[in-house]
């Protein structure tokens, strides 16, 4: 970056914003989803596909989370570099990636499966556990959230 003819190097910073969520270990998928739902907006759950990433320490305690990518009703693109860059910066030992299917189809698409395999491989390379990949859907009548967990379905490699 250049200002008044002088070259400057921009400083990189990371900001944390506190959410009113108790930091406790998450041991199962239901507890993970409880944390994830703090980042999803239920009002647009059936309108736009979003990807939320939850970062955990070695004791299964969430460090933080973020809506990283938003897309259309049927498509959202993600960038694994950004996910794992944030994981490294915040010192995460594990990541959980979740996205919603606005159309209501709970089963993973071929793209979802390929993405989870890729995300897990990158995590293994970096020494960060790819804890789970979760698809969320909302019942349009009663608002109930249902989910599909890659880990619970044994679609991720065991430790």
Automatic annotation (TrEMBL):
This is DNA repair protein RadC. It comes from the Bacteria. InterPro entries: MPN, RadC_JAB, UPF0758. One of its GO terms (biological process) is proteolysis. Keywords: Hydrolase, Metal-binding, Metalloprotease, Protease, Zinc. Residues 25-156 form the MPN domain. GO terms for molecular function: metal ion binding; metallopeptidase activity. PANTHER family: DNA REPAIR PROTEIN RADC, UPF0758 PROTEIN YEES-RELATED. Transmembrane segments: none annotated. PROSITE patterns: MPN (PS50249).
